[in-house]
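Section 3.1: Structural characterization of target chains.
Under the original work plan, the team committed to producing a structural model for every single-chain target entering the pipeline before any wet-lab resources were allocated. The record below documents one such target. The sequence was received from the expression subgroup and is listed exactly as submitted; it comprises 154 residues.
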Amino acid sequence: MPIIKKIIDKLIKKNISISVAESCTGGLIANTITKYSGVSKIFSYGIITYSNKAKYKYLSVSKNNLSKFGAVSKEVAEDMINGLYKNEKTKICISTTGIAGPNGGTKTKPVGLVYIGIKVNKKNYIFKKIFKGKRSEIQRKTRDFIFNKINQLF
């Protein structure tokens, strides 16, 4: 995790604010960020919206997108970062929604499918990934992917 510490330090140094809305990662990203001293200068908000009801209630995720595309979709990942930004105008907004397993996968949405939303300076990036491994590995790979993307963007 030394690379993550370097990324966090860079965000602190540049005073780049960050917030997260997590589903399949269950708070892992917020937990990772808050492990480091001084992060309160940039990290203001993290929410776990595991159920569809919570996604709608706290992030204004479209009920239509939830019913039409399902919680695990690029549309919902994007709604999540947009709702997060509406609530907390941070420079970086992150969302995760996916199937960490070991159950819940289907032919069209297998275990390991994760949609990641990253809003940077009001520009949305949505990534579709299929990670292999056990539940905790899928969650860690999602976290690591996010921090690598943030590192590339800053």
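The helical segments are 2-13, 28-33, 52-59, 63-69, 74-87, 135-153.
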